[in-house]
Structures are given as structure tokens and as C-alpha cells.
Amino acid sequence: MQLFRKPKLTKKKIIILSAVIVLLTIFCIFQNKYLTVTEYTFTSPKVTTASDGFTIMQISDLHNAEFGRNNSRLISKIKENSPDIIVITGDIVDSNHTNIDTAIELCNQATKIAPCYYITGNHEMWLDATESEKLYSGINSAGVTILDNTTVILDNDIYLTGLGDDHLYNGTLAELSKTVPENALHIVLAHEPQYLEEEYTLSSPDLIITGHAHGGQFRLPFIGGIVAPDQGFFPKYTSGEYKSGDTTMYVSRGLGNSVIPLRLFNTPELNLLKIKTK
């Protein structure tokens, strides 16, 4: 005696199921490939006439992702916003499926738009010696300035410091900050945001630009990001503006994926930072 009947897949049910699968696929592709540009305005009395209106475009956590052939859509988005400089805040490659050529080609295109500055992320730290040499040589040849625990003075008197990902929490920023005049605007590029209060704020930079958290990977209303590298579940720093003392930090949601290959309600992001006098 048959107690349960096997569900029968009618033609109508097959059509509905197929439509749901197609819609979910389109939704997932959209979530991972639709480029957004988020604008922020940072104001400070330290901003001089020469630096008032200065714009910075941030590229973070590309992880070898491509947006159009040779990242043509990504480059177009950057061009549309006419930044004064472009900062690449780490993880331009992914150590699990490394494609050095994609990273270098992006740098070649980006330097045609504006001066570019680069810092390492954790994935660059995980490359083998041969891959590292090829990547850094290619980035340098493309005309990108690699800021490896160094500070440069931009033409508008902004002090720009870049921290290597292996020097975020060992007092390196404190040492570099000693060379920055108190009345000068000090901007720091650091790949990982979770050291804001325990390390970065101690040196009192004006502005820190970071990534690494991937926006929390999956974002929910009223909750925000769900999980981030080195912060675990329900991370504190995932996207947008954070303040600690006299320091403001901006965290980019980034562009690509790494361990988790899918974003939800968290489209790839470029950050455009506008510097204005107070």
C-alpha cells in the first residue's frame, strides 16, 4: 500500500522552476558585477586652498575580478569621475587563483587617468617570491608608486602615507607620522580597517583609507555586514565612514571576492573621496 505519492513535475511546474533559477542567476550576477561609485566628502581646517576640491578614487580588493574585457567598465567608471589621484589599497590579486597580468593591465590603464599609489594587502603577502617579483615589477613599470611604509608629499602639500600589510600593528605608522607637520593634512592608506582604535588612532592621522572587509560579504538591512576577514561574524568595520578621536576612516566594500565567491546586497564598489576645506 503506497502511503505517499511522488510529486509529479508538470510542465507548468517545470516552467516556474526554470524561471526561478534564471532569475536567481541574473540576480547573483548583478550582485557581483554591477559597479557602484560611492562618494564621500571629507572636511578639515587643514585643507589648504591648493588641496580644496582634491578628489581621490579608491580601488580595493579586486582579487583578479574583471568588469568587461580588460576591465573596460571599471576603467570607464574611473574616467567618468576624473580623480586627481587613484589609490589601490591592496589585494589587487588573489593568492588562490593568481592572475598577475590582469592586475598589471589594470595599472597600465589607471596610470593613463591619474597618478596612482599602491599598498599591499594580505593576498600580496601570500604570493611566492616569483609571483611577488612579477607583480611589483609590473606595477612599477606601469608607473604606479608603491608606498611600502613610506610617505610622499603631494603637489598640494598633502602628506600621503602607505603601510605594507605586514606593518599595520607594529608602530610603523607612529614612526612615519613623526615626519608629518602638525598643521599638514595626513592621509594614510592601510589595507585592513580593524586596527583603527588600537593602532591607527594613536598616531592621529586625519584620514585613513582602507578595504579588506568586503563589505561584510552579505549585507542585511539594520544589521550591515555578516562576516569579514579578521573580524568574524557581525564585524564592526565593513563599509563607509568611521570616526575615532581626530581620525576619520573610510572602508571600501571592494570589488572582487576571495574565499566566499558571492556577494548579496553588496555590489562591487569604487570610493570617490572629495577633500574640502572646513
UniProtKB/TrEMBL annotation:
InterPro entries: Calcineurin-like_PHP, Metallo-depent_PP-like, Metallophosphoesterase_sf. The keyword Hydrolase applies. The keyword DNA-binding does not apply. It holds the Pfam family Metallophos. Residues 55-215 form the Calcineurin-like phosphoesterase domain. It comes from the Bacteria. This is Calcineurin-like phosphoesterase domain-containing protein. PANTHER family: PHOSPHODIESTERASE YAEI (PTHR31302:SF31), TRANSMEMBRANE PROTEIN WITH METALLOPHOSPHOESTERASE DOMAIN-RELATED (PTHR31302). GO terms for molecular function: metal ion binding; UDP-2,3-diacylglucosamine hydrolase activity. GO terms for biological process: lipid A biosynthetic process. Keywords: Hydrolase, Metal-binding. One of its GO terms (cellular component) is membrane.
